[in-house]
Amino acid sequence: MSPSYILQTSFDRKWTPLAKRYSLYLYREVGWETHELHGSPVLFIPGNAGSSQQARSIASSATRQYFEQPEQVASEFVSAEYRALDFFTVEFNEDLSAFHGTTLETEREYASRAIDYILSLYPANTSILILGHSMGGVVATSLLPHHNIAAIITMSTPYTLPPARFDRRIEGIFTRSLHSLTSDPTPILSLCGGATDLMEVLIDEPFSPAR
What was the pLDDT predicted at 22? Predict the structure, then answer.
């Protein structure tokens, strides 16, 4: 892997007052792809005490599968007219979102504005894929309903119960998130959950990669 994290300086306080607290990066694999945005946007949301750099493994693997050589698209993707994935990743400065409902709500607000900013960089009617790790998956599903979210993939996300019940706000967030799982038509794939997770794939329509 040869990671590069490009700070999105334009996503500033004009977009959200939370820009002074959190930050947003575009991931690029050095030498394999340019900084130009020609693909399909993806937003990675880290979990409790997580880091924006946790997106590295997934983003690097996706890039090196799409390009068989630096800046040369693999033949199977060229023939199918698939686009690359543009990975954006949020930095929450290792906030302890699992234990504080207000922090979780703040992360949700920042992620929502990050989606607005990211989509402003693309043509109208572009949709975005959301990846959430652990509590980042709770943040992701709490964003629903959202007509620009094409699908959500969560990893090791505790859906049914919060890790710790220290305040009522976190209970409310989990209740809304669980409601989205059972009622919203957006495709949601939950991977690698724990014993108390709701391990269920909710897909009303097949999700196909952007072309």
Answer: 98
Question: Average per-residue pLDDT in the chain?
Answer: 87
Helix axes of 135-142 and 101-120: crossing angle, nearest 10 degrees? 60
Q: Helices 168-183 and 101-120: crossing angle, nearest 10°?
A: 50
For the domain bounded by 3-191, which CATH number is listed?
3.40.50.1820
Cα dihedral 10, 3, 189, 77 sign: positive
Q: Which of 23, 60, 97, 134 is catalytic?
A: 134
User: In this structure, how many other beta carbons lie within 10 angstroms of the beta carbon of residue 22?
Assistant: 21
Domain extent listing, the chain: 3-191
b/e map 25-40, b = 16+ CB within 10 Å? bbbbbeebbeeeeebb
- Asked if residues 13 and 29 have their Cβ atoms less than 8 Å apart, the reply is no
Q: What is the pLDDT of residues 50-94, one digit of tens each?
A: 999 999 999 999 999 999 888 888 888 887 778 899 999 999 999
First to last CA, the chain: 26
Q: 48: which 2 tokens?
A: 């409790």
> Is 134 a catalytic site residue?
yes
Cis peptide leading into 145, omega within 30 of 0? yes
